[in-house]
Amino acid sequence: MRKPVREAVRLIAISGCLTLLLSVLAGCGSEKPDAAFPAVIDDLPVVTAAAEDWPWWRGPMRDNVAAADQDPPLVWSETENVLWQADLPGSGHATPCIHGDRIFLASADKEQETIWINCFDRDSGDPLWQTVVYSGPMAKIHGDNSYASATAACDGERVFFPYQTDREVRMTAVDLDGTVVWDEAVTTFGSIQGYSASPVLYKSALIVSTDGTKANKVTALHRGTGQVVWQILRPEDDESYASPLVAHVAGRDQLVIIGPNKTRAYDPNSGELFWECDGPAKYTTATIAFDSEKIYATGGYPQKALLAIRADGSGDVTDTHLAWKSDKKAGYVPSPLLGDGLIYAVADRGLMRCYDAASGQVVWEEDLNAPFYSSPVLVGDRVYLFDRKGKGYVFKAGREFELLAENSLPDGVFATPVICGSRIYLRTLGDFYCLGTP
Questions:
Q1: Which of 340, 369, 342, 276 is nearest to 314 (CA)?
Q2: Taking 50 as the threshold, does the pLDDT of residue 360 lie above it?
Q3: Potential cystine with 305: which of 99, 206, 280, 381 (Cβ 3.0-4.6 Å)?
């Protein structure tokens, strides 16, 4: 189902592209928001998340920290502490999106040339509905990627999911019963690896990053209508696969994206560039971690580093606001996790490290001898982490490494787990599990 873009939006988009082109030719900065789009950013209620939900990528507070007052299991297997198990059509690496009594999870099948959003009952795992959001030619992607790698976002009324066709990235919005409310083109898109960036909600907008082999953009869409609120053309055409994130840092809301080549922060109200810092790598995949004053960015390829950047600057802050930079053992795909002044980060090949967030000093490191794509999640004084072979690790948060448990499932894990209500909602390469103590 490929829904055509409304003619009015098409004309606006064409006008916007011409405006951007003319501004670049005139010598203006390419990261200025396009004035051709109406600035409707705050006409809808601000979306807040309940502590017991996980309605978007990185959880309620966008930091992969689950509510501390819960007790997910330490032990599980294919049969032990499995509250329910659900079959998914096709494949995908998206993290579950959980709102109220429902779970939303995207999947896709290359042979059927179809992308779905699936809805499950949160308590029982029973399938409630399945909606086809796209049916048609599929783009070429990396073998480790999927056509459903972006995590959906829910504002309490609608579920939003970006997906890649053979020629563009589109955004679909379905209501909680699975009916498509709108489906709009974001931009033309090409990529060697394929699309994976999850959207972020901010005020009335839904912000999505599209860094590929064509003109890179960041676009804010109105979540009620799908109309463009603002859009910027990024200054580089190198690929990056990182998801954007809005955080309140250094006294202001900042939209931060790692890569390509630089870490950048924008005003989420308008798309105006706040600051940029060189690094950590040309190609990046991870999402930032943050505290009240700094953001932490990891990458990537061919360089590797973990950066701590003070977020109160403007313009190029490479020489003025880089608080510290780690060595070349940093990770690429998994996102770092911050808790109680410590950063937990796992490299793709299994080196798990704990850093002091203030100084960047390595507090401890442990080689887990396994490949990783999934990101760690903090629950109270425990960190949960899954490797690509299906093994799950639980270790104690703190300044000394203490492994509490190791458990295995029959299929590998690429997706990051969701932990809420003392349950672990985990998508493997084969099934969808709800793990908990009966």
A1: 276
A2: yes
A3: 280
The radius of gyration of the chain's CA atoms, rounded to the nearest angstrom, is 20
Residue at token pair 């029959």: 410
Q: What is the dihedral of CA 184, 190, 195, 200, to 10 degrees?
A: -50
E-assigned strand segments in 34-179: 65-66, 82-86, 97-99, 102-109, 114-121, 127-135, 153-154, 158-164, 168-175
Cα angle 62-97-184, degrees, rounded to a multiple of 5 = 95
Q: Which helix (H) or strand (E) holds 367?
A: strand 362-367
Would you mind telling me the total number of residues written for the chain in this entry? 438
Question: Which residues lie below 8 Å from residue 342, measured CB to CB, with a gap of 6+?
Answer: 354, 355, 356, 357, 363, 397, 398, 399
Cα–Cα dist 288/259, whole Å? 11
| Alpha-carbon gap, residue 49 to 213, rounded angstroms | 35
| DSSP code for 294 | E
Query: How many whole angstroms separate alpha carbon 421 and alpha carbon 412?
Result: 24
Element (H, E) at 10: helix 7-25
State both tokens at 393.
């690790």
Q: Find the angle CA(262)-CA(264)-CA(267) to the nearest 5 degrees.
A: 165
- What sign does the CA torsion over 381, 69, 378, 291 have? negative
Cα–Cα distances in angstroms (integers) from residue 405 to residues 39, 296, 384, 391, in the given order: 50, 28, 10, 10
Query: CA 115: distance to chain centroid?
Result: 18
| Residue that the structure tokens 């494949």 belong to | 91
DSSP state of 54: B
69-120 pLDDT, tens digit per residue, is 999 999 999 999 999 999 999 999 999 999 999 999 999 999 999 999 999 9
**C-alpha to C-alpha distance for 207 and 195, rounded to whole angstroms:** 15
Using a 10 angstrom Cβ sphere, with 0-12 exposed, 13-18 middle and 19 or more buried, the burial of residue 71 is exposed
Q: Dump pLDDT digits (tens) for 220-231.
A: 999 999 999 999
Q: Of 136, 134, 107, 135, whose CA–CA distance to 119 is shortest? A: 107
- 3 state DSSP class of 405: strand
Q: Which two tokens stand for residue 188?
A: 């033309």
